[in-house]
């Protein structure tokens, strides 16, 4: 039996999304077995009919028809449940038992069986329009992962547990996001997912269903708000770059000041620094280096000072 539910679609005309649409609730593994159980007795009955017709026995064909009908009704009750399925059996409208995987028999016209998939199932949370605590509109969609822990409760207590869980997830998403600001929505996605999961789990725990996790897939905001956030982020990065450059200039000035003090106390260090600078300029053929002795410059400076005192 295939179950297909359309809970909503995106507002964009170019993109259409189907939500809460499982591929199939039950894989009919018992159909080949029912065919075999029907054909083998019928073929044997047909063989007997040919023998009886040779013996000119009246009513043989009618008997075969009735026999085929009875065999078909009996064979129609054979079902096969897969390893990941549980069969909820109702007898005359009342719950009877939960069938395990394997071959099971359903009494025709008396029993009804509903197969439940106990694997981890996924449902889309349709795109929701929400308003954050600071009055910012946004559109959010997500995915819900859950599994059935008690097949009896999932069938008997709630009409359609997939549809009901999807509705609870949509309501919980709007409630949780409405209590947060935009910055919290963008920065604390993991906490939001946990809050939504706990809210849904609180409502569906009596249905025999366990919520595995909820994931927010996309958060869509107005284009003008995106542009403002982009400008804010750009300004923040520029601010950090300017601060980093200023700190680098300050550190370079401090190092240069310390180096000047060392060179002033040790004249030999100044000479070594001069020779290193010359060595760095020497390999370049386009540079012309003119050397002027520092001692000669100092002698001229001392002579000028003495002359000024006189």
List keywords for this structure.
310 residues, alpha+beta, 3-stranded antiparallel beta sheet, 8 strands, elongated, disordered N terminus
Account of the protein in words:
The chain has 310 residues and is an alpha+beta fold. It contains 9 helices and 8 strands. Among the domains are: 31-114, no CATH class; 266-282 and 289-310, no CATH class. Strands 3-2-5 form a 3-stranded antiparallel sheet. The protein has a 3-stranded antiparallel sheet with strand order 6-7-8. It has a two-stranded antiparallel sheet with strand order 1-4. The N and C termini lie far apart (118 Å).
Spell out the blueprint of helices and strands.
Layout: H1 31-54, H2 60-75, E1 78-81, E2 85-91, E3 94-99, E4 102-105, E5 111-117, E6 121-131, E7 137-148, H3 151-156, H4 161-177, H5 182-187, H6 189-204, E8 209-220, H7 223-265, H8 267-281, H9 294-309
Helix pairs in contact: 1-2, 4-6, 7-8
The run of helices and strands is HHEEEEEEEHHHHEHHH
Structural class: alpha+beta
Low-confidence parts, pLDDT < 50 over ≥5 residues? 1-20
Mean pLDDT over the full residue set:
77
**Main pleated sheet:** 3 strands, antiparallel
Radius of gyration of CA atoms, rounded to a whole number: 43 Å
Q: How are the strands of the biggest sheet laid out side by side?
A: 3-2-5
Strand residues, percent = 15-25%
The total count of strands amounts to 8
The coarse silhouette is: elongated
Tally of helical runs: 9
Distance between the termini: 118 Å
> What share of residues is helical?
40-55%
């Amino acid at each position: 039996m295939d179950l297909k539910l359309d809970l909503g679609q995106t507002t964009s005309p170019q993109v259409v999304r189907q939500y809460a649409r499982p591929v199939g609730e039950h894989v009919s593994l018992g159909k080949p077995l029912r065919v075999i159980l029907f054909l083998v007795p019928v073929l044997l009955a047909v063989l007997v009919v040919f023998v009886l017709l040779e013996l000119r026995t009246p009513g043989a064909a009618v008997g075969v028809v009735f026999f085929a009908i009875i065999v078909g009704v009996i064979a129609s009750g054979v079902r096969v449940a897969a390893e990941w399925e549980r069969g909820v059996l109702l007898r005359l409208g009342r719950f009877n038992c939960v069938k395990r995987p394997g071959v099971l028999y359903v009494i025709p016209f008396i029993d009804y069986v509903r197969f439940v998939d106990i694997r981890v199932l996924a449902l889309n949370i349709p795109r929701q329009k929400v308003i954050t605590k600071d009055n910012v509109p946004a559109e959010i969609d997500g995915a819900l992962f859950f599994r059935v822990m008690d097949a009896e409760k999932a069938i008997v207590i709630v009409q359609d547990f997939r549809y009901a869980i999807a509705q609870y997830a949509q309501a919980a998403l709007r409630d949780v996001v409405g209590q947060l600001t935009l910055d919290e929505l963008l920065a604390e996605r993991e906490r939001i997912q946990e809050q939504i999961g706990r809210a849904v789990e609180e409502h569906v725990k009596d249905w025999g269903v366990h919520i595995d996790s909820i994931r927010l897939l996309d958060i869509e905001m107005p284009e003008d708000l995106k542009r403002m956030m982009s400008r804010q982020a750009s300004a923040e990065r520029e601010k950090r770059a300017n601060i980093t450059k200023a700190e680098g200039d300050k550190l370079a000035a401090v190092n240069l000041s310390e180096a000047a003090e060392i060179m002033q106390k040790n004249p030999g260090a100044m000479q070594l620094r001069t020779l290193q600078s010359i060595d760095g300029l020497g390999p370049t053929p386009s540079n012309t280096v003119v050397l002027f002795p520092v001692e000669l410059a100092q002698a001229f400076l001392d002579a000028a000072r003495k002359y000024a005192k006189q």
